[in-house]
Amino acid sequence: MKIAILNGPNLNLLGKREPEIYGNLTFEAYLSDLKSKFPEISFTYFQSNIEGELIDQLHAYGFSYDGIILNAGAYTHTSIGIGDAVKGITTPVIEVHISNTFSREEFRHQSYISPNAKGVIIGFGLQSYELAIQSFL
Question: Is 98 annotated as a binding residue?
Answer without folding.
Answer: yes
